[in-house]
Amino acid sequence: MPDVYTVVLGLLILLPLLGNIFFPYLWLDLVFLFRTIRTGYRCYQYSKRNPSFALLDVFLDKVQKHPEKPLVLFREESYSYRQIDQRSSQLARVLQSRVGLKEGETAAVFLENVPAYLWVWLGLEKIGCAMACVNYNIRSNSLLHVLSSCQAKVLLTTPDFQAAIEDILPTLKTEGIKVFYLSEDSPTKGVEALLGHIKCSSDEPVPVSCRSNLTPKSPCLYIFTSGTTGLPKAAIINRRKLLLVSGMYRLCGVCPKDIVYVPLPMYHSAALLIAIGGCLEVGATFVLRSKFSASCFWDDCRRYRITVIQYVGEMMRYLCNSPKKDNDRDHNVRIAIGNGMRVEVWKEFLRRFGFLHIYEFYGATEGNVGFINYTGKVGAVGKTNYLHKKLTMFQLIKYDVDQDEAVRDEKGLCETGLLVAKITEVTPFVGYAGDRQKTEKKVLRDVLNKGDCYFNTGDLLMQDHEGFIYFQDRVGDTFRWKGENVATTEVESILATLNFIQEVNVYGVPVPGHEGKIGMAAVRLKEGLAFDGKKLYEHVKASMPAYAAPRFIRLRDTLEITGTFKQCKGQLVREGFHPGVVSDPLYFLDDSEKCYVPMTQQIVDAITEKKLKL
């Protein structure tokens, strides 16, 4: 009998060891699957309530539970859950009574990272209005485009953007879009200042009847994303999706006692939906910074006792490239959540700043599929297994980058790559506001079977034998630089207005030691006209954000196109900007000279050695 006990005891000891060898991620898989199912079930239960339960209602519950708990810390200011609730109610009443906004209409916000962004969002939610989150870097025609695409009735901004507003104000008045400053006074004739009225308004709770007609499918946010159409597209975020995305923090183990650092722009889904939405969902506190600063990052983390950081890959690279300090590991950060971090940056970050759990994820603002790397495996953007794949129903299909299209077999079906996710009632693709064709272009039909339809992410991913997912590249006419998506066709249209340019092809090229790809343009000059580097510099600086400006120019006699008249970019991307590889004339955007200057080996060396800031 003792022998039997010995055998049983031995097996009990061996089972965990064997499990770790053959199924090293089993426990993590089960825990994450349980969290996912629980979060999904909670969202399902919320949507079935009458009236349906939204993120606003989750926030209001937290106000009742801990009204005096800090929600937002900004510089020397602190705002509690109760204060944000009261200020959002005051704004809601002013928007109804003075501005005239009605349930179901849209207001656009053109703001920097300030606490007002949050109470404006919640105030609009309280009266059943959607909020369009406008990138504060855009100007002129791009700004007008985003306002019209989401059919905004009102634009809320501050005098900080006086010049940009006054530039388009006549057009806004013609189109019936009202503009208001969230300030005490207005420096612009025809633009009213609202802050005084807001402060005098009642802060009592706004009746639920003001938003009683909303459903889980009602739009609540418009997040603008660059795409192959050139101009920003308004991705529709409905109330159901907002609840699902805001649940990501709970999936990653964030809890009410955490303090989250948000230095990313609030017009991005990473900051607003995931970070701030996540804080509202779990009842945590977040620290808002107006702009990311590598030199202030860890000082802020120590000052506010940050425990969770929201990142993009470029931000982490800046931190790794900052001067080393003795107190690099002196912080309380335990979790980092974000996307776009390269393997070498990931390894250096952990080596230098100490161990913390990094939750690298993959997802698109408008997409119906996402992954989270909950294991900490360096380089992966997620992990999947049999059950997860059954729930998400995604496929990796072959893609021809040069032809910019999915590869199909002789039956017209896609070959088994490019990440696509099946569009169903459970995983819908809501699409974009405005032109329906933009939405249709993201849908692939007859992928695996005749009649099926999938969302085309436009991203190439790879899956290994353990189920880990790795990001490979972005296809189409968009590249990412400094944490921003850049639409090549939009940049092309701006460059083409110069009198000496006949034709232009914009693309992104990789730079050693940098995240993403930087802008480069192949240009064919008009016959008889010369390249004017100074004029091009002035035009670029005046017409587009710095992150979108092509840093390199390549002069070409001809620009190749495909049989379907699409510009060829693949070879140009591969050849890059090295004068030893490219025989065509090359130019570099030199801010010190305020001109595009001839490319030299010295410039290449300075970029490679990171002596030249890009």
TrEMBL record:
User: What is the membrane topology here?
Assistant: Multi-pass membrane protein
Q: What is its EC number?
A: 6.2.1.3
Principal localization reads membrane
- Give all residue intervals belonging to the AMP-dependent synthetase/ligase domain: 61-373
Q: Which GO terms describe its biological process?
A: bile acid metabolic process; long-chain fatty acid import into cell
Please give the Pfam families that the UniProt record associates with this protein. Answer: AMP-binding (PF00501), AMP-binding_C (PF13193)
Q: Which residues cross the membrane?
A: 6-28
Supply the alphabetized keyword list.
Cell membrane, Fatty acid metabolism, Ligase, Lipid metabolism, Lipid transport, Membrane, Nucleotide-binding, Transmembrane, Transmembrane helix, Transport
Q: Name one GO cellular component term.
A: plasma membrane
Q: Where in the cell is it found?
A: Cell membrane
User: Which GO-annotated molecular functions does the record name?
Assistant: long-chain fatty acid transmembrane transporter activity; long-chain fatty acid-CoA ligase activity; nucleotide binding
Which part of the chain is the AMP-binding enzyme C-terminal domain?
490-566
Catalytic reaction annotation: tetracosanoate + ATP + CoA = tetracosanoyl-CoA + AMP + diphosphate; a very long-chain fatty acid + ATP + CoA = a very long-chain fatty acyl-CoA + AMP + diphosphate; a long-chain fatty acid + ATP + CoA = a long-chain fatty acyl-CoA + AMP + diphosphate
NCBIfam families per UniProt = PRK08279.1
Q: Which family does it belong to?
A: Belongs to the ATP-dependent AMP-binding enzyme family.
Name of this protein:
long-chain-fatty-acid--CoA ligase
